[in-house]
Amino acid sequence: MALNKLTIIKVGGKIVEEEDTLKQLLHDFSTIEGSKILVHGGGRSATKLAERLGIESKMVDGRRITDSETLQVVTMVYGGLVNKNIVAGLQSLGVNALGLTGADMDIIRSEKRPVKDIDYGFVGDVKKVKADVLKLLIDQGIVPIVAPLSHDGKGHMLNTNADTMAAETAQAMSEYYDVSLVYCFEKKGVLMDEHDDDSVIPQLDKASYQKYVQEGIIQGGMLPKLENAFKSIEKGVSEVVITQASEIGKGKGTTII
Ligand SMILES: Nc1ncnc2c1ncn2[C@@H]1O[C@H](COP(=O)(O)OP(=O)(O)O)[C@@H](O)[C@H]1O
Ligand SMILES: CC(=O)N[C@@H](CCC(=O)OP(=O)(O)O)C(=O)O
What we know:
The chain is an alpha/beta fold. It has helices at residues 13-17, 19-30, 43-52, 68-92, 131-139, 162-173, 206-214, 222-234; strands at residues 4-11, 35-40, 59-60, 63-64, 97-100, 108-112, 124-129, 143-146, 149-151, 157-159, 177-185, 203-204, 239-244, 254-256. Residues 12-14, 41, 43, 62, 185, 187, 190-191, 194, 217-222 line the site of adenosine-5'-diphosphate.
């Protein structure tokens, strides 16, 4: 029997921090038919609040070094401000959104990343996504809105890259659904030249990805997105697309092959 379709949209920090772009995204998300989940970031909003509090933000390969003060900031920003703004916005559009961190209903459990060359601090590597619980919610007509926070099951929240949260959720949900994972950000897709929006790479395979990383064409925040995209395809996700938020479902952007 063919599996039902599930669309997982990941939306990044630049879109969620601006009222107009967020409003447009929520409108576009509300029009997606069928089962869906929204995973959001908010890195830029966390960096701004940290700055106002006099806390410096450090990123390595697109991931935040999270000390205990930074963990407080990201918990407030992702689990509070950003998540609840999205939930309220979607409710106003008739979408029965439910905001969740990984701790809520134990949906996403992680382990603190071991210290190797770099100590990322309170950053979680995802160990388990409770796909069955998310499915129960979806079956009730609820639309889960997932913040980039997981927990370790011992009482600690852990900061977790939103691209990874979306990918791990997509992989786990593939047991029950035919999953499309769409990474939405402010550019039209993965670009040959970051500053030229007309240089979209329509299809990207792993060999080309590795070559572009070496050449410096792909870097920074695009790294966790693409690492997660390739892993998702390998682990049963039907489709992974990287595109501009306004072009969801229009067959544009970069498709991972
Ligand atoms: N080849 C590339 N094509 C598009 N963006 C790229 C590329 N290489 C690096 N980037 C950078 O990656 C960023 C997206 O990562 P990030 O800011 O983490 O996204 P998000 O909006 O999901 O939080 C882009 O804004 C861009 O600056
Ligand atoms: C560990 C880690 O890097 N966590 C990310 C979580 C937020 C995020 O991923 O937000 P964007 O999608 O807006 O980049 C961070 O704190 O920046």
